[in-house]
Amino acid sequence: MMKTKRLLKRLLIVASVVGVLLIISLAVWNLRITEISVEGNTYYTDEEVISLIFPETNDLHTLYAMWDNRFGDKKDIPFIKNYNISITGLHSAEIIVYEKGLIGYIPYMGNYLYFDVEGYIVETSTEKIDGLLFIDGINFDFFVLNSRLPVEDDNLFYNTLVLSRLINEKNLEVERIYFDRDMKVTLYMGDIKVYLGDATELETKILTLVDIWPQITKEKGTLYLDNYSKVNNIVEYIFKRDT
């Protein structure tokens, strides 16, 4: 009789421990990440970054996210070079995104080729990213991903970088940059073309454009800044209206 009572007592203890462990396991497994902050992203919204890194519902389980972040493979995400995930709490995480340094894109056979400051094609996509420069007039026969775009004049990439910086600094709405065969530059801004000519004194030409723009913004035509000159500190320029 005493042995039976002891056995029942032990079974009750074991069952209680197992029950507690099951409850704890279920509680822990049901822990989910519900708050995620994202930093460093400009090409994607916060919601897009989260959905790309955590595509499945189970990915947001806290324990699974911790394990996958430590031992799993990183997702291959267009336009993103790398990212780090920090689990900051039982229900929270932080994502820091490191994007590829893109400055422009070139349309090519239904796709867009995105290149960096050194002219390397770092991404191809059917998706167009706003805020990057559309570069037109570049001729090439082939390209290799993660290799330099085979162009005749490598100065094109430096000139594009300079123009990109100036256009962004001055908040100019440039829709397209066209390089002709002689590497002369034309900016397309709505109904106005701005002919900069060769790539000398680009900063001065852009500053001149900024000064002139309020006077011509509602016009249709071509602004010529290739042979501008200053006389008595007054900028002389030619603007030809479309007929």
Describe the structure.
This protein has 243 residues and is of the alpha/beta class. It folds into two domains: 35-99, Ubiquitin-like (UB roll), CATH 3.10.20; 102-241, Rossmann fold, CATH 3.40.50.10960. The chain is 31% helix and 33% strand. It contains five helices and twelve strands. The protein has helices spanning 2-29, 46-53, 62-71, 155-169, 202-216, and strands at residues 35-39, 80-89, 92-99, 102-108, 111-116, 121-125, 133-136, 176-179, 185-189, 192-197, 221-231, 234-241. Strand 10, helix 5 (202-216) and strand 11 form a beta-alpha-beta unit. The longest helix has 28 residues, at 2-29. It is elongated.
Sequence-ordered SSE layout with sheet pairings:
Layout: H1 2-29, E1 35-39, H2 46-53, H3 62-71, E2 80-89, E3 92-99, E4 102-108, E5 111-116, E6 121-125, E7 133-136, H4 155-169, E8 176-179, E9 185-189, E10 192-197, H5 202-216, E11 221-231, E12 234-241
Summed up:
The chain is α/β, with parallel strands linked by helices and 243 residues long. The protein is 31% helix and 33% strand. It has 2 domains: 35-99, Ubiquitin-like (UB roll) (Roll); 102-241, Rossmann fold.
List its traits.
243 residues, alpha/beta, Ubiquitin-like (UB roll), Rossmann fold, 9-stranded mixed sheet, elongated
